Amino acid sequence: MSRWAWFLGVGLVLLPGNSVPGGTANHQDTEKKIIEYLNSHMKPGEPVVVSKLFNEVFTTPEERKVLDKLYNSFFKVPLFVAEFQARTNRPPSLREIAEQFQFHGQDTVNVILKIVEYDRRVPKFFVRSSETGEIRSVDLEKIKADPRFNKAIERSLTGWEGKTAPPFRLQAFEGREIGLDDYKGKTRLVYFWFLHCPPCVQITPHLVSLHEKLKDRGFVVLGLNADRVLELDYADSERKDYLTKHGVNFPVAHLTAEVQQAYGGVQLFPTLFLVDKEGLIRAHFVNYQDEATLEKAIRSVL
């Protein structure tokens, strides 16, 4: 069985003689082409030859790269939907899903959600609008009860307050290594983010302000960038330009899959853990937070 078994049971029909014109170097155009093809060939209940997708239909390096991205998002999207519902008490919008997974538009989200809906391995835990495609409701108990998802969901939703923050040593953007224990004796805000994530862009000025305002009181923000873990195609120069543009004044390192899992398999960005001087997690924030909310929590720990 090929690794493209994620389509098994989805009903993707690859008819004899079907083909797609040669690939383009433009990632967005390639994603659109693949999504249009998938959307037009998905038929519930009909057999599928999975290997043809990778070996016969989409064969260029650019096309296979986009397929990898879609493949890697398949089981992550349901987890994201479940955690978003649990954290915010509402389903994520198609736009918010697209932003989190760096999809080029809501058409991609619609197709991924349709694949999830068709796949027999994923419990039918959400209901979508037949008119807009937006998720109308999420049944958390149904997906939590599924053995393929419950451990991952439990890890991400478990209460973190009072637990010891998992240690880490990671490569900083400028090359040196930094670790949580390097700042032992300080109050630390561990910040999980990725480049151009809209709520991350929105929260960055608050973190810059708080780091500057409270650093003399023993406070530091530690930024863990998830671009590489999420396989986002950004160059180091783009990350450097982002830090310069936003005046980032705190240490930033490359997140690894191991550290991501140690912190509950973070799926929502931004996610922040407030760690006190003794290394205990005192607060856990998911998604955008205003500066006043963050400052109040930090000052209560300082």
Would you kindly provide a written description of the structure presented here, covering whatever features stand out?
By secondary structure, the chain is an alpha/beta fold. It is 42% helix and 14% strand. It contains 12 helices and 9 strands. The strands form 3 sheets. Strands 7-6-5-8-9 form a 5-stranded mixed β-sheet, covered by helices on one side. A two-stranded antiparallel sheet has the order 1-2. Helix 4 (76-88) packs parallel to helix 8 (150-157). Mean pLDDT is 85; it is low at 1-25.
Task: Jot down its keywords.
302 residues; alpha/beta
Brief description of this entry?
The protein is an alpha/beta fold and 302 residues long. The protein has twelve helices and nine strands.
Report the count of strand segments.
9
The separation of the N and C termini measures: 54 Å
Mean pLDDT: 85
Biggest sheet: strands side by side, in what order? 7-6-5-8-9
Range of helix content? 40-55%
Beta-strand residue percentage: 5-15%
